């Protein structure tokens, strides 16, 4: 599982960085989204990978903390997803404004 | 727990409530909106003065959000440094808001709301005692700053905004990676708890911890504008409208603040073998940034780019001071930071007024000179006695004061800041190495370069034109500039008490035991009697 997850994160972030360095605004925004997914998975993995372990404790005491997954990274991922979604939407608006004002989808607003 | 204690969260709540309230009014009710917004920022100044007094009592004030104990819940911590930063932000923000009344607040929708949300994010970032919460407040600041940078619209702003947003989104991902790596190694995000946990990190995990901290640091260095992460900064700051550029001067200090906070806290003497691992990187980065900024200042033809490069000069100086990491240099750095933030804020506002004194052809000329070098303008002109009108005289005096402050000449506070920094660097004892000499040289050279650039700009604006266009300047535009410069002059005159406060700030920063004890030993409020629980 560790190998699959690391390959997944690597592929997402790698393609994201490549797209981020491309000259078209659409490629940049897709690249940023891909990096975002990779980073979210990375945060998730920092709580250690567990299978079949609940992140929520049952009511009435803690039986054995080792049997549960770490809930903090999951909460962090949730926040990161929401913030990432909002900023991507905002970036999309600026991207469209740039396209409308300059008539080009190049990141510098003009063809080189 | 009394009502007074809740004052700690007021700098976050007040702008939030004001900003949200302003959304409810129609965009055309300018007077109402500006009255509320400016009123709120004046209250913020009053609150922050109260907080500075509270913090100066010595003890850190801890505020448990949600009433959970420290390592588990999120805390706000008020100490001298955060109180100082809030006061600085509030002062600059009020000046910028008053200035914006003249015209800029009408240039686009929701200026005041965005501005208030920016203040909320800044204050939150200064107060929080939790790394992930810091990320959230960073995002609040950034989202608001995206909107403010685009304020006024136009192709140039949209293009600079596009770059600014892309850079900052990428930096936010680095922030997240860094935070989660630190969590993965230590299992906590509370800053005070981290101090305890980092001391106990086993040697085989140290590398991972330092990698995480470095990645986290890169996110702050992008904000602070360390070379080579600073190429976005002059472009973005120079296209922003004047009041926004002024408040952006404090935005880059947010990155410096976090470094000042985290470097001694997490990697101070308690950190074992990781102690001070960041220092040599920050030192080298700071010196290079200083050099880059100084050359940029000298190369700038347009005034606004000169001011933007001054931000980099100030960032570079501060990064070196963070790297020196001892009490005296930190105190000097704080003094320098307050002074340079106020000065650069005032300069951005002043440039807007000075640009009106230049005819449009001169503006085109300065752009051409930017591209092709100085145009040949040595045509012998017949000298006519130009009587400088009062407006220009006032602007000229302000410009002169700005120049003295930016280049750090005596007798004003820019000189005191640089002198204190040099004195602290000389006093570190026997470890004055070649690197320090390079820093001394760069600091003095950057002052010289700033002076040359300012004098050149001054001659071009005030002396060179034969027919001076007297700019229309309203009192409401000039008053904030005068207030900011007066604050700098007051810091010169009252440098003793200010340095006393900053010395205390620096010594408590470098001795985190008080901070850690205050946060970790703070007990939640008991549940009210007679409730269900």
Major beta sheet summary of chain A:
none
The overall pLDDT average of chain B reads 84
| Biggest protein-protein contact in the assembly | A-B, 33 and 29 residues
Category by helix and strand content of chain A: mainly alpha
Give the fraction of residues assigned to helices of chain A.
55-70%
Count of alpha/pi helices of chain A = 3
The succession of helices and strands of chain B, N to C, reads HHEEHHHHHHHHHHHHHHHHHH
Shape of chain A: elongated
Q: What kind of sheet is the major sheet of chain B?
A: 2 strands, antiparallel
* Oligomerization status of the protein chains: heterodimer
Q: Show unreliable segments of chain A.
A: none
Distance between the termini of chain B: 19 Å
Attribute tags:
heterodimer, A: 112 residues, mainly alpha, 3 helices, elongated, B: 533 residues, two-stranded antiparallel ribbon, 20 helices, globular
Topology (SSEs and partners):
The complex is a heterodimer of chains A (112) and B (533).
Chain A: H1 2-20, H2 25-45, H3 71-102
Chain B: H1 10-23, H2 30-55, E1 61-64, E2 75-78, H3 80-100, H4 111-127, H5 131-149, H6 155-186, H7 191-199, H8 203-224, H9 232-239, H10 242-267, H11 279-299, H12 303-324, H13 327-357, H14 360-372, H15 390-407, H16 413-426, H17 434-463, H18 475-493, H19 495-509, H20 513-520
Antiparallel strand pairs in B: 1-2
Helix pairs in contact in B: 1-2, 1-4, 2-3, 3-4, 3-10, 3-13, 3-18, 4-5, 4-10, 5-6, 5-10, 6-8, 6-9, 7-10, 7-20, 8-10, 9-12, 10-12, 10-13, 11-12, 11-17, 12-13, 12-17, 13-15, 13-16, 13-18, 13-19, 15-17, 15-18
């Amino acid at each position: 599982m560790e190998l699959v997850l690391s390959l997944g994160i690597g592929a997402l972030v790698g393609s994201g960085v490549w797209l981020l360095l491309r000259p078209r605004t659409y490629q940049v925004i897709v690249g940023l989204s891909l990096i975002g997914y990779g980073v979210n998975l990375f945060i998730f993995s920092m709580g250690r990978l567990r299978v079949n372990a609940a992140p929520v404790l049952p009511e009435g005491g803690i039986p054995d903390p080792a049997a549960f997954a770490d809930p903090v990274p999951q909460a962090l991922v949730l926040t990161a997803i929401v913030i990432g979604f909002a900023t991507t939407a905002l970036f999309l608006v600026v991207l469209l404004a740039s396209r409308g004002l300059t008539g080009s989808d190049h990141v510098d607003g003009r063809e080189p | 727990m009394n009502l007074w204690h809740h004052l700690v969260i007021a700098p976050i709540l007040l702008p939030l409530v004001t900003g949200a309230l302003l959304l409810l009014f129609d965009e055309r009710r300018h007077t109402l909106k500006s009255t509320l917004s400016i009123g709120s920022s004046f209250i913020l100044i009053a609150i922050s003065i109260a907080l500075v007094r509270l913090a100066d009592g010595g003890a850190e004030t801890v505020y448990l959000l949600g009433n959970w104990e420290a390592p588990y819940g999120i805390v706000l911590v008020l100490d001298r440094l955060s109180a100082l930063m809030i006061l600085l932000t509030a002062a600059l923000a009020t000046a910028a808001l008053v200035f914006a009344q003249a015209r800029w607040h009408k240039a686009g929708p929701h200026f005041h709301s965005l501005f208030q949300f920016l203040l909320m994010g800044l204050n939150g970032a200064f107060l929080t005692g939790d790394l992930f919460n810091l990320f959230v407040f960073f995002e609040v600041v950034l989202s608001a700053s995206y909107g403010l940078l685009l304020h006024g619209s136009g192709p140039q702003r949209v293009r600079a905004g596009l770059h600014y947003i892309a850079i900052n989104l990428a930096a936010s991902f680095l922030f997240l990676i860094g935070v989660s790596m630190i969590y993965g190694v230590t299992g906590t995000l509370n800053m005070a708890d981290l101090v305890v946990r980092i001391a106990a990190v086993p040697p085989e995990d140290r590398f991972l911890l330092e990698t995480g901290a470095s990645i986290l640091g890169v996110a702050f260095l992008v904000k602070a504008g360390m070379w080579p992460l600073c190429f976005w900064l002059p472009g973005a700051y120079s296209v922003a409208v004047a009041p926004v550029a002024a408040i952006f001067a404090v935005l880059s200090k947010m990155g410096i603040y976090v470094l000042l906070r985290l470097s001694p806290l997490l990697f101070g003497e308690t950190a074992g073998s990781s102690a001070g691992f960041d220092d040599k990187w920050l030192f080298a980065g700071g010196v290079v940034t200083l050099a880059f900024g100084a050359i940029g200042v000298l190369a700038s033809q347009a005034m606004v780019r000169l001011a933007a490069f001054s931000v980099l000069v100030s960032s570079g100086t501060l990064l070196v001071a963070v790297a020196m990491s001892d009490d005296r240099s930190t105190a000097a750095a704080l003094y320098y930071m307050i002074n340079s933030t106020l000065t650069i804020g005032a300069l951005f506002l002043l440039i807007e007024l000075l640009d009106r004194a230049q005819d449009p052809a001169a503006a085109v000329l300065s752009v051409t000179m930017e591209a092709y070098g100085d145009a040949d303008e040595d045509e012998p002109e017949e000298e006519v006695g130009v009587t400088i009108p009062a407006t220009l005289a006032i602007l000229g005096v302000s410009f002169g004061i700005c120049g003295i402050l930016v280049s750090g000449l005596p007798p004003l506070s820019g000189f005191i800041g640089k002198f204190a920094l040099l004195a602290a660097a000389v006093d570190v004892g026997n470890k004055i190495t070649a690197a320090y000499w390079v820093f001394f040289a760069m600091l003095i050279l950057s002052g010289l370069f700033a002076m040359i650039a300012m004098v050149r700009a001054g001659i071009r604006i005030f002396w060179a034109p034969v027919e001076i266009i007297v700019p229309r300047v309203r009192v409401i535009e000039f008053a904030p500039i005068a207030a900011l410069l007066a604050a700098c002059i007051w810091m010169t005159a009252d440098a003793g008490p200010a340095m006393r406060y900053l010395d205390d700030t620096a010594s408590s920063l470098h001795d985190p035991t008080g901070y850690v004890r205050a946060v970790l030993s703070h007990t939640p409020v008991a549940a009210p009697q007679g409730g269900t629980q």
